[in-house]
Design goal:
Strand content of chain A: 15-25%
Radius of gyration of chain A: 22 Å
Largest sheet of chain A: 6 strands, parallel
Oligomer: heterotrimer
Shape of chain A: globular
Strand order of the largest sheet of chain A: 2-1-3-4-5-11
Distance between the termini of chain A: 61 Å
CATH class of the largest domain in chain B: Alpha Beta
Number of helices of chain B: 17
Shape of chain B: globular
Largest interface: B-C, 63 and 43 residues
Strand content of chain B: 25-35%
Helix content of chain B: 25-40%
CATH architecture of the largest domain in chain B: 3-Layer(aba) Sandwich
CATH topology of the largest domain in chain A: Rossmann fold
Number of domains of chain B: 2
CATH topology of the largest domain in chain B: Rossmann fold
Strand order of the largest sheet of chain B: 6-9-10-3-11-12
CATH superfamily of the largest domain in chain B: P-loop containing nucleotide triphosphate hydrolases
CATH architecture of the largest domain in chain A: 3-Layer(aba) Sandwich
Number of helices of chain A: 12
CATH class of the largest domain in chain A: Alpha Beta
CATH superfamily of the largest domain in chain A: Response regulator
Amino acid sequence: MKQTKKFWVLTLVAALFFSVALTGCGGKNKEESGAANGGAHSELKAGLVTDLGSVNDKSFNQSAWEGLQKLNKETGVQVKYLEPKKDTEIITSLNQFVKNKYDLTWATGYTMMDAVKQVAGENPNVKIGLVDAEVQAPNVASVLFKEQEGSFLVGVIAGLTTKSNKVGFVGGVELPVIKRFEVGFRAGVEAVNPEAAKNMKVIYAGDFSRVDKGKSAAATIYNEGADIIFHAAGMTGNGVFNEAKERSKGDKKAWVIGVDMDQSLTFGDEVTLTSMVKKVDEAVVKVSKDMIDGKFPGGKTTYLGLKENGVDIAPTSTKNVAPDVLKKVEEFREKIIKGEITVPEK
Amino acid sequence: MAEQHDIVLQLKGLTKRFGEFVANDHIDLELRKGEVLALLGENGAGKSTLMNMVFGLYQPEEGEIWVKGQQLTMDTPSVAIEHGIGMVHQHFKLVPPFTVTENIILGMETKKGLRLDKKSAAARIQELSDMYKLNLKPHARIDSISVGMQQRVEIMKILYRGADILIFDEPTAVLTPQEISELLGIFRKLTKEGKSIIVITHKLKEIMEAADRCTVIRRGKVIDTLIVKDTTPQQLAERMVGHNVKLTVDKEDAKPAETMLHVQDIWAKDDSGHDMLKGLSFEVKAGEIVGIAGVDGNGQTELVEAISGMRPTQKGKIQLGSDELTNRNPRDVSEIGVGHIPQDRHKHGLVLDFTIEENSVLKSYFKSPWTKNGIIQSDIIKEETERYVKDYDIRTPGTGVLARSLSGGNQQKIIIAREIERKPRLLIAAQPTRGLDVGAISFVHKQLIAERDAGKGVLLVSFELEEIMNVADRILVIFNGQIVGETTPKQTNEQELGLMMAGKLERGFAHV
Amino acid sequence: MSKMKGLVTRLRQESVWISLLSIVIGLIIGAIVMLVSGYDPLLAYQSLVEKIVGNSYDFGETLRAVVPLIMTGLAVAVAFRAGLFNIGVEGQIVMGSIGALLVGHFVSLPPVIHGIVAMIVGTLVGGLWGMLVAWLKTSRGINEVISCIMLNWCALYISHIVIRTLMEESGTGRSKLIQESASIQLDSLSAWMDGARIHWGFAIAIIAVIGYSFFMNKTKWGYEIRAVGSNRHAAHYAGMKVNSTVLRAFFISGMLGGMVGTFEVLGVFKYVAIAPATSGLGFDGIAVALLGMNTAIGIFFSAILFGALMYGAQGMSFGADVPGEVVRMIISIIIFFTAAPGLLRMFFKLRTRKGRKGANANGNDSVSS
């Protein structure tokens, strides 16, 4: 009896480990040697430490890695990434690059902030790029996005597209960065449809990785009569798409506005109205090139908004968004870039 | 050799070693068609090892196995099964929530498309059951039928697979007297139909009753093969242990003194919550052995557990001398002075994965000198255990081996040593010789009598009438949770006791 | 009779031998997988070893990774010895970290003493949390696996609530830092190891290994736990209080888990993050305890093996571009073969031993009959 029980327990544990292994075993090919291009800067090395996700997350980390791959193609810089699996490994992953004398190490995500601060302090000669968080150190270049500006534009689309005059927002965790999405979105809706802004329903799922929570949050909002939801919730947002797909089967349409990348490419354009794109890849390329040119913006925080082409609506928006609405969007874009409109962030 | 007999199984020079230990040493044996061959030997003589080789569970280092004139290499049990050999193990291998039919066809399910064809299997089982008078209900669940019935399911499993050589490993160890005689009846039925049977046993009475021939094994070697009807139990026993043994116990008459245990009108429930003990009363005096006779399941287990503190009572009073035992916890009861040799030594008596040392202090580990300031004093325990090993003749390579690795008799000796050495005022012995061989049984009986003679009270609970008649000074018969009779071995016989146990005769209270 | 002794030692040796063989096979299969997927296994293993012992920083970090595995392995083992499956070490870690965080942040005490007090409080909170599982089991009959899993999530969300309401560092998704006086980092050793995060936990883990062995084998409470775990009927018969023993075992198990939480807060992070999931250290502890066969020395070595492999995974990733998942796969293969020693025997056709083992597994009966 005991023997059998032990056997099953062990098998279970083995299976658990194995399933973890399999989920991560997507085809990967990480080191891009720039040799093909003759590599003008192949003596330089840039690394990326993801937050506790993977470079295949269809979002933030993937975008950053695509940026580095682009950098490799264009300049020949050697690139490589590490994916810490436990939060204790964030610092050691950073150190892996630092101690191997990488010219620039990227860290993506606010969870990296403390680790970056420590590593940068201990190694004043290394350069670290930090996305989505801010560290005051002479050797750290922080990159923040003006999510509120992009969110404003999708807010305009939502405000003009909604038929029920009700829209909703699903956030991951109530952090300042996510709050910027919400506030910008609300301002955008308000600019074109004050009634919809007043009716806006906001839910924070409290989690970035729980599809089920996203789904139930979306269900609540759609049930109250909303027909468009903007999500800024990472993987939790996948649940919003799932819920919308189930509801869109009839003639009633339930729209989702995606985030970070063009999510219509992942979830199809039947429910994806548009996406608020954060061009992490562009930012990574830009700052890396500055480093190559000897203009590394250490100690500075770069804010990327509409003007800097750091945020935007997805290029595939033409598919589901009416042309006159897109025209309106362009008008607002101009106003924001010119500074005629300042989008609030809190 | 022996042309006039049809030999179905022949072993030639079979040898099996475990390391340096020779479990079977050039064993020769033959089984004739239609006979019951008993394989007699003490615990550890090598009987089971031999049969496991025949059944393909072990592979011999030397020797040959011939089945029906064909030499075979028994790699796995499937080879054995293929050639018509089946084995009923001592511990049944059944799935309790499955039905009889499901258990029997397990592993050889016939299918109709994707569905199991249970109907025709059940019909076939019914047919076989009628043929051999097994009385099986194909659709009953295993957990709802008695142990004796479960054994028949095991027999049916073998017959269903077409076996004609049946091996039984200690088949009567778990059965009530009634079930034993039924089983022996089944044996006769089977051999009449041309099946051949090997029974591993150390119970002389059953051999005399059911076997045609008896092969005696001692320390891995065949000592002799005897024709049963030409021999006596005495002779068999001597062959088995290698020296003279007494089958009856020598003892003086009891000299009962003051009342030791006083049980008055106790009520207790069984595990499923039904009243099991229904107002049961009796006494045990210092210096006497009181035997509780009865068919299993009439409240013996509950009675012993109620006294030893392992089962709550709803009503009534239990006292040891002037000390109150009613509904005390097992620790208190044991400290007040009750020793308890439990009925199931694997379930209660021992922690099988503990060493002999650890088991020998199972009840007193927490006290000085075994523990000081919460720390176990292994050296002192080892010393004491070594003494037990010597005084109680526990056969083991050392005191540090696991209890699991000892034979049943030696395991029982650990328990007896532990309980007696704690110097209890009352010793409860429940089925103390279950599954033991002749030598060990007589040892246990001597210990019980010695305790009596030292002025302790002894309560002996047994399903073996022979044991009760031999050892007890006073006999109480338990039936349906009550004491229905009281007598002494001198005033009664097994037939009368049997009737009382079946609830068909009440007598005795006048004799008190 | 000496043959029996020989047999016992042989069986003991056999299990050790199976563990070692499993490790080798795990590494070989890992190599094959890497080869098939186009990675260089030799370079990968070389990078693995370099990452583990290549320089003082990595060596120190390997130790840092091993420490919690030793502790969670012991935590799981204590419960296992009492016959229970503590899959709730995860939650006990979280509760321990919260306890240590509260003391570390809000209470002001002199250095060293502050750390000790914070550790004790965290450890006790973890222990009580563990005892809750045992209480549910003994008083309400709730299966410990189910309550453990549910309480893991409860612990996680309790930590969220505590941090959010009392001590969130706004905008960072984590708590405020503990006071410097509560730190249990060994700064001088850390500096000597190039900044690797070495803390008291290392010494405590070694003491815990020795203590576990002593407690289990030499004290009456350990004796009771083993008796209850091995045969609770016999324990009851022998007069032990089965329920209190179970409670005690889970309290100890929970304390060991809680202590891991305090290490992570006071020695590694100095804060607690509002994490979406628990750390996984408790689950790793199950594997460590199983591979270590619940013995002190076994757990010590299997924790070193797992910790080193998991930490070294980054090196394989960096040096040979092998995904860290391959390391997890190797670990799972090792566990798999330890779990099913029959498979190994099949591979190597260890016929003669098969019968032997079969007999032991089948019967509760004697070896030599």
